[in-house]
Amino acid sequence: MTAVGGTSGPPTGHMVTVARSRSVHGPWEHCPHNPIVRMQGAGEAWWSRGHATAVEGPGGQWYFVYHGYENGYRTLGRQTLLEPFVWTADGWPRALGGDLSRALPMPGGRSGAPHGMARSDAFASSSLGTRWTAYGTSPEEAARIAMGGGTLVLPGKGSGPGDGSVLTQMVGDRAYEITVTVELDGEGEAGLLLFYNRRLFLGMGITGAGLTSYRGGMPMYWREPAPAARTMQLRIVNDLQIVTFFYSLDGKTWTRHAVRSEVSGYNANTMDDLASLRPALYAAGKGQGVFTDFRYRALG
């Protein structure tokens, strides 16, 4: 089984082909109905489908497990798809196709089991490596991150999100809200982001003297008139790729940031990096960020 074409790029370019041989050295026979998996048109729910693995499920039903981009939501990155297939009489796999945006029935009529992971984090214990991932961090740097007892202490480095300490979390919802309490300890800044990579992110951080806002991987030209504070609650709402920032001093009265963003361009075709736009916490400078009560809420 071979992945053909670019993983991103034109949505019809990625596909799966099959060849077989009695020896790894060949000769190889190509499947007569290659490609066996491929997006055919722009109206399909999943684009750039490829890199398939064949697995046998309950009751002898076979499936392809592969990745694809959700139509209109490349910001979510490559997501895992499951498609049933059958073996033909002459021994080739043939995908059954269908609407991959719809749920598959559980084999044998059984009910589903509990699944998924809570995205909110009270930082009662360390969830580094499970819920949170340290981005571009050496083992020595990761060892300095303290998480537990209700707080996350993230040592700063660099001058901003692009070269600072960043923790990210994978999500799959089209619309969600994230909120966290941030305290800046020492010099620098700390805050809340939607982070694609070091070159592309948006969000805001407290500096003690006010709020630094980012969009397109750069500080915004328009300075938000937030009060000077070393502790602040920050919130980002990503509603179907329309992003709005909020901040509060008491968690009750919230101020909406003056600048909103449309973020569908934060994807692999823009940055040539097979990642996704995901919630993140960061700390930069000589101080550290102290985070409490991270909350994630899916919308709709």
Layout of helices and strands:
Layout: E1 2-4, E2 15-17, E3 19-20, E4 29-30, E5 37-38, E6 46-56, E7 62-70, E8 79-87, E9 93-95, E10 133-134, H1 139-142, E11 146-148, E12 151-155, E13 165-168, E14 175-185, E15 189-197, E16 200-206, E17 211-215, E18 218-219, E19 231-239, E20 242-248, E21 255-256, E22 261-262, H2 268-271, E23 278-284, E24 288-298
Antiparallel strand pairs: 1-2, 2-5, 3-4, 6-7, 7-8, 8-9, 10-13, 11-12, 12-24, 13-23, 14-19, 14-24, 15-16, 15-23, 16-17, 17-18, 19-20, 20-21, 20-22
Structure description:
The protein is mainly beta. It has two domains: 2-109, Glycosyl hydrolase domain, family 43 (Tachylectin-2, Chain A, 5 Propeller); 133-298, Jelly Rolls (Sandwich). The chain is built from two helices and 24 strands. The chain has helices at residues 139-142, 268-271, and strands at 2-4, 15-17, 19-20, 29-30, 37-38, 46-56, 62-70, 79-87, 93-95, 133-134, 146-148, 151-155, 165-168, 175-185, 189-197, 200-206, 211-215, 218-219, 231-239, 242-248, 255-256, 261-262, 278-284, 288-298. Strands 11, 12, 14, 19, 20, 21, 22 and 24 form an eight-stranded antiparallel sheet that branches. Strands 10-13-23-15-16-17-18 form a seven-stranded antiparallel sheet, with no helix packed on it. Strands 6-7-8-9 form a four-stranded antiparallel sheet, with no helix packed on it. The radius of gyration is 23 Å and the shape is elongated. The model has no long low-confidence stretch (mean pLDDT 94).
